[in-house]
Amino acid sequence: MPFVMIGVALTFGIFLMRLFQLQIIRGDEYQIRSERNSVRTVRLEAARGEILDRERRLVASTRPAFGVEVIPNELHAPQRTYDALGELLGREVLDLQGVVGSPGGRRRFQPIALATDLSYEERARVESHRYALPGVFTTIRPRRYYEAGESAAHLLGFIGEIGAEQLGTRRFADYRAGEIVGKSGLEYVLESHLRGRAGGRNTIVDVAGREMEVLDEVRAVRGGTAVLTLDRELQAVAEQALATSTEGETRTGAVVAMDVKTGDLLALVSLPAFDPNSFAGGIDSKTWQALRDDPLEPLLNRAITGQYPPGSTYKAVVAAAALEEGLITPEEKIYCPGSFRLGRRTYRCWKRAGHGWVDLQRSLVESCDVYYYQAGLRLGVDRIAFFARAFSLGRLTGIPIPNEQPGLVPTTAWKERRFGEPWHKGETVSTSIGQGYNLMTPIQLAVIYAAIANGGALVEPRVVRRLETKDGALVREYPPVFRGTVPVRPENLQLVRDAMEGVVSAPNGTGSRARVPGVRVAGKTGTAQVVRLKDDDAEEVEIRREHRDHAWFVAYAPVEAPEIVVAVLVEHGGHGGATAGPVAQAVLAHYFASKVSDETVPVLERSAAVETVSVGGGDASH
């Protein structure tokens, strides 16, 4: 009898210990598991808002992405499950196990994504075997899709998972870990408008994790729509024209096409580019490292961040300044023997034989360096700087894209602060033709020549025309912004404009390859020196690529009523007229194609005229 009592007591003791373990020690775990076996709450991600071009053509949208997720605590036979998924998805089993790891605590009950963008065939294979895979389920989530791949990548930007340093900041106060946010470009700038509002769904599931019934659901709300100033077709034409190289080399550079009256950006190109679709589902470390380590820097937005000597495109600013100050007249002629002597140094003109007697018109048409050496010395570097800043150089243009750079306008005070040295007249000579310390971005060049073309108004580049709800109701409109006028009288600007038409149309103009049949085009070539060459250096084609000059060309049209300005930079492209000119021509030809008569449309092709140039060894630029 005592043995029976002891046996009963032990039995009850074991039951009590087990009850204590289940209720107290592992109570939370089993409560969660019980709830998981009955009701599962699923977060419904919101689709990001659409981005449209000026004609309301899709630029960025959202598409469904099929994925596979697992809840670790619901995997009845983890190894068998991983083996099966590896075969169904064509993935390495060890990779799948590495993604899940060994989560503890509440993480065991949270879904972990194993694949985020399955094909229909992959999803079908998983679905057909789900009955034998407890803890595995498929998902459909919205995924950002950029309609034209790399096109306008630097303008649009890319998205990614919110960073730990962003969580908790004022801007991201209502975000949670794992959410997708804009990381650069317009995706970053318009994040709050494009984001959308997430929803949720409660479903009854069985012990195998299969959904049996939907209890309730709050639908996700797509983000708002953004209508840009961008012309998707013109953007593609500009990208193709810049990328095309007769030498078979990879082109790097930028193109900016802008409305001269409103500042609307019609195209913003930076090459090489990247495909923002690579970031939409989370970029892998190997691809990210390749982009960061690429010596051609595909992530760099050269249109607003790249800073380069402006070369002879700067001569229009110097000409306007000298006219306004009364230091030159349109009729005055300066003799160009092919070089200019200052002290012990000789500064060459790009045309070694010289231009002879040159007036204002011819100085711009043929881009005579000697003329501007002397005009610049008459002005002095500080007066040149005054007018350069008045044309918006040395400051941000106001384009609402992060990381814009201001360029550099040198002055005597700047050099004293920077180097602790006085300014020398020889440096003014170099500055006068856009060399020396001068630095400018392609977007700044577009703004300068838009002001020249429109009569002096400085327009701020506009990227977004309007923001709308997902249903098309107006949220906000962005009117053109004007930042003042240049301090140059209309008659002096007209003299500069007249000369720049000759740059393209005159037989001796350096920009003849930018001609568009049926359209009057004005422009200016520029060749910005990268390294200083000796007199006996070889011709440009024999110089290493990284030592070749940068090629500039900027044009606006039509001359009689300007509408569009196009600024082109080809890094290490050599001569501006020969390399950058045809790019601008292609953009202008496409823009005006619908406005030219049927008889002239078939001949909208690049001019075969070739600019005759010479490689300068001093600070020559044309």
Structure report:
With 622 residues, the protein is of the alpha+beta class. The chain has two domains: 40-64 and 140-227, Alpha-Beta Complex (Penicillin-binding protein 2a (Domain 2)), CATH 3.90.1310.10; 232-274 and 301-603, Beta-lactamase (3-Layer(aba) Sandwich). The protein contains 20 helices and 23 strands. Strands 2, 3, 4, 5, 10, 18 and 19 form a seven-stranded mixed beta sheet that branches. β14 (339-342) and β15 form a beta hairpin. The longest helix is centred in the first third of the chain and has 24 residues, at 2-25. The termini are far apart. The model is unreliable at 535-541 and 597-621 (pLDDT under 50).
Mean pLDDT over the residues: 86
CATH C-level class of the largest domain is: Alpha Beta
- The best one-word shape is elongated
**Helical proportion, percent range:** 25-40%
Count of helix runs = 20
User: How many strand segments?
Assistant: 23
Number of domains: 2
Oligomeric state of the chains present here: single chain
